[in-house]
Design brief:
This protein is an alpha/beta fold. It has two domains: 164 residues, no CATH class; 131 residues, no CATH class. It has a six-stranded mixed β-sheet, sandwiched between helices. It has a three-stranded parallel β-sheet with strand order 2-1-3. α1 links the parallel β1 and β2. α1 packs parallel to α4 and α10 packs antiparallel against α11. The longest helix has 35 residues. 32% of the residues are buried.
Length: 313
C-alpha cells in the first residue's frame, strides 16, 4: 500500500467512526505510514465508482466505504452482527486489548451494535452524553464535519490519556515509590483496614492508591512540604479526633495559642491556619491541590503518619 495521504469516511459522524479514526491516527503509523498527518475527506461513495483497492493503492484509506475497514461488509460475511469499525481497526493494529483503549472501544461497540452509547434514562445524562452531543453537532454543522471532529477528538484523546495514566503510568510510579521508601502501606482498625502514605507531586496518585489498594485513608506530602489527608468517603472514618491532634501539634510547634473549643471546627481555625477541615469531602487539607497562600505544615511527615496510626489503630 502507498503512503497514506487521505482518510475517506462517511459524512455522518458517529461514536464508532470517530473512535476508529482516532485509533487509526494515534496507533496506525507503523502499519500505514503517513496516516497520523493524513487529511480527512468525507464521501458517500467512491469517486467515479473507483474500487476501494485502487484507491488504497493510491494512498487513500477508506473506512466504512468498502475496502479493508468496513464493518458492514465484515458482519455480512460472518453472518453475525458482532464487529464495529473500532473493533476491526483495533484488531488490525493489534491494540484491541490495550488498557488505554479498552473502555472507548467497548463504548463505541455498544453504541454501534446496541444503540446504547449512553445507558442512563435520565434526561440530563442523555442530553450531555457524548453520543447525543455528537448528534447535535452533526445537525448544527451538517456541512462542516471537520468542526465536529475538532471538538470531539480532543475529548476522546483526554479519555485515552487518562486511561493510560491510570492503567500504566501510575502503577509503575506507585511501585517505584514503594521500592524507594517514598510510600508506605499500613494497617488501621485492628488490622482490618488499610492506610497509606505517599510523597509525590502527582495529584492523581492519592485517588489511584485509594482505589487500587482499597485504603480508607491516604496521607500525601508534595515536594513543597504541603501535606493532605483524604479518606474513602464510604468508610465513614471520623476525622474529628485526627484534626484535633493535628491542630494541637501545629500550634505547639509554632508556639501559638488555639481555642480548645474550636479544635474540631470545620474550615480553618486561628493558631493552626495551615489546616482546613473539609467536612463535606471528609479531608484535612494543608493547601489541597492548589496550596497558593497556604504555608506548609510545620509537623514532620513522620509525626503526621504516626498520629494517624495511633488514632486509628
Amino acid at each position: 500500500m502507498a503512503k497514506i495521504h487521505t482518510i475517506a469516511m462517511f459524512p455522518k459522524l458517529q461514536p464508532d467512526t470517530i473512535t476508529a479514526l482516532y485509533i487509526l491516527k494515534t496507533f496506525g503509523e507503523p502499519f500505514f505510514p503517513g496516516i497520523r498527518n493524513a487529511a480527512v475527506k468525507f464521501w458517500t461513495t467512491t469517486p467515479n465508482g473507483e474500487s476501494p483497492q485502487k484507491l488504497e493503492a493510491e494512498g487513500y484509506l477508506l473506512i466504512d466505504l468498502g475496502g479493508m475497514f468496513d464493518h458492514h461488509t465484515e458482519n455480512e460475511a460472518s453472518g453475525s452482527k458482532k464487529e464495529c469499525l473500532s473493533t476491526i481497526v483495533a484488531k488490525y493494529l493489534k491494540v484491541d486489548t490495550h488498557p488505554s483503549l479498552r473502555k472507548i472501544i467497548q463504548w463505541a461497540k455498544r453504541d454501534d451494535l446496541e444503540g446504547k452509547g449512553t445507558i442512563s434514562t435520565d434526561n440530563l445524562d442523555r442530553a450531555f452524553g457524548l453520543p447525543g452531543l455528537i448528534m447535535n453537532l452533526n445537525r448544527l454543522y451538517p456541512n462542516d464535519q471537520h468542526r465536529t471532529l475538532d471538538l470531539i477528538m480532543p475529548l476522546i484523546d483526554a479519555h485515552v490519556r487518562e486511561e493510560y495514566k491510570r492503567n500504566i503510568e501510575l502503577p509503575r510510579i506507585w511501585k517505584s515509590l514503594l521500592e524507594n521508601h517514598k510510600a508506605e502501606i499500613f494497617f488501621i482498625k485492628n488490622g482490618t483496614q488499610k492506610g497509606a502514605f505517599v510523597q509525590t507531586d502527582d495529584l492523581a496518585m492519592a485517588g489511584f492508591i485509594r482505589n487500587k489498594e482499597d485504603t480508607k485513608i491516604v496521607i500525601t506530602k508534595n515536594n513543597s512540604g504541603h501535606t493532605n489527608i483524604i479518606t474513602k468517603q464510604d468508610s465513614e472514618l471520623d476525622l474529628k479526633p485526627l484534626i484535633k491532634e493535628i491542630r494541637l501539634k501545629e500550634a505547639s510547634i509554632k508556639n501559638t495559642s488555639i481555642d480548645s473549643n474550636k479544635l474540631t471546627d470545620p474550615a480553618r481555625v486561628d493558631g493552626a491556619e495551615e489546616w482546613y477541615y473539609d467536612t463535606a469531602a471528609n479531608t484535612l487539607q494543608n493547601g489541597g491541590a492548589h496550596p497558593q497562600g497556604v504555608n506548609p505544615t510545620h509537623i514532620p511527615i513522620e509525626d503526621v503518619v504516626n498520629i494517624v496510626k495511633n488514632i486509628y489503630r
